[in-house]
Write a structure and sequence with these properties.
The chain contains 12 helices and 13 strands. Strands 6, 7, 8, 9, 10, 11, 12 and 13 form an 8-stranded antiparallel β-sheet that branches.
Length: about 425
């Protein structure tokens, strides 16, 4: 009896160890059932109302006969299982017993079917009673992981398509994270352009009472610091490390500021679970942080639920993607600004070249006005403006040199023309 119990535990443990690959789970089921129960089996995912065999059963692989779920005498059984019903073990010709069992998701909706056959009726009942729930859970974990990574892949594609519009990009981030991590709120903070020691709220999203909408909060500014009561967000930004807290852990954290006791944007007015991840570019420069608050279950805030390690991993990967997107978006913006400047310079210069002397001098005057009114100086762009001024100064110097050169050429041409005219006049008859 003890040996059978250990074998059963080993079998179940093996299912869970394979959770990240559905093919490996199915192989473990088939091999385990053959070895311990002398039962053949196949595993079918339900996809858009049809069945998808992960690995065809031995009979189909060997003889290429019709799939079991397509056989006329079994269609009703599979149809019942597909509806979430548990058909009884029944006997087929040749003394073979068959059991077709549905696997249900967290909402009791069938998402897969386990089909088994054996010469021993009792073994199939034992599998249903002792093992089915574990198979169901390991496959649910697998499908959840696949769904999450597909969601992340789709989100990445959407972000890449919004690189020229950072506002839409950030809205997409906070909305998607709120939905994917089942959080009540998601906030995206970026390092302030005016003061690198502070974070500013860029975008926020709220989801509660079956409604989802942008956070109606502006001018939120947090200090980047890890001192006592400086705030959890500032702590994450300063440490450049993720932080996940729940329940009493929030208030006991040294950097806890007390603000979570009064958060009117949350449905219950308080934060019960908190997860923050820094946004760091490839050069290890802090760009901001992204945080989520209040983990939900079945659409409602669960006071006793915290964000999982999987949630943290998802948010860390997303933070890296956000960092890359923000860097690329910034680069695109700089290129567009440079292109605008080049067009202005080209227009100003080419306009003057139409009349080399007076027109060129007029272009210098226009450049001087442009230099004064181009953009109001901003401290963080000091180097950029300095370089711009250097370019304008260089152009002005060259323009004056060009003007003098054209003027001298004109004088030379006039002098040459004078000599030519004199020579022509002197060669005329009667002179």
């Amino acid at each position: 009896m003890e040996i059978e119990k250990n074998l059963l535990l080993d079998l179940i443990y093996n299912f869970y160890c394979k959770y990240d690959h559905i093919d490996d789970i199915v192989k473990a089921i088939r091999e385990g059932f053959k070895q311990h129960y002398e039962a053949e089996s196949c595993f079918l995912l339900i996809d858009d109302g049809s069945f998808e065999p992960i690995i065809p059963c031995d009979l189909y692989s060997t003889n290429k006969i019709t799939h079991c779920f397509k056989r006329e005498e079994l269609k009703n059984i599979f149809s019942s299982a597909q509806k979430g019903e548990y058909p009884k073990v029944f006997q087929e010709k040749g003394g073979i017993y068959r059991s077709v069992l549905p696997l249900l998701d967290s909402k009791n909706k069938p998402f897969a079917i386990l089909n088994m056959e054996s010469k021993k009726e009792g073994l199939l009942e034992e599998i249903r009673n002792n093992i089915l729930k574990h198979i169901e859970l390991s496959v649910r974990i697998n499908q959840s992981i696949i769904k999450r990574w597909n969601s992340l892949a789709n989100l990445t594609k959407n972000l890449m398509s919004k690189l020229s519009d950072t506002t839409s990009l950030m809205d997409e981030v906070v909305k998607s994270v709120t939905e994917e991590l089942e959080a009540e709120a998601c906030s995206l903070f970026l390092v302030s352009k005016d003061n690198l020691n502070y974070l500013e709220l860029a975008r926020g999203w709220i989801s509660h009472n079956n409604k989802s909408f942008p956070m109606d909060i502006t001018n939120v500014r947090l200090e980047i610091a890890k001192g006592e009561k400086t705030g959890l967000s500032g702590f994450v930004a300063e440490k450049k490390e993720p932080l996940s807290l729940a329940g009493e852990e929030i208030e006991k954290h040294p950097s806890y500021s007390g603000r979570s006791q009064s958060r009117p944007y949350l449905s219950l007015g308080r934060c019960f679970s908190w997860l923050g991840v820094p946004i760091i570019n490839p050069g290890d420069r802090l760009l901001g942080i992204i945080k989520v608050e209040n983990k939900k279950k079945n659409g409602r805030v669960d006071k006793g639920l915290n964000f999982s390690k999987e949630d943290e991993g998802y948010l860390e990967i997303l933070a890296s993607i956000i960092a890359i997107c923000l860097e690329v978006a910034s680069y695109i913006k700089r290129r567009e600004e440079m292109a605008d400047t080049e067009r202005l310079i080209y227009y100003t210069s080419s306009h003057g070249l139409k009349t080399p002397l007076h027109g060129l001098l007029e272009s210098i005057r226009q450049l001087e006005e442009l230099d004064q009114a181009f953009i109001k100086p901003q401290p963080e762009l000091e180097k950029k403006y300095k370089r711009r001024n250097e370019i304008f100064s260089f152009l002005k110097e060259d323009a004056y040199k060009y003007a003098r050169l054209v003027q001298n050429i004109c004088y030379m041409i006039l002098a040459i023309l004078g000599e030519v005219i004199k020579a022509i006049l002197s060669s005329l008859p009667g002179k």
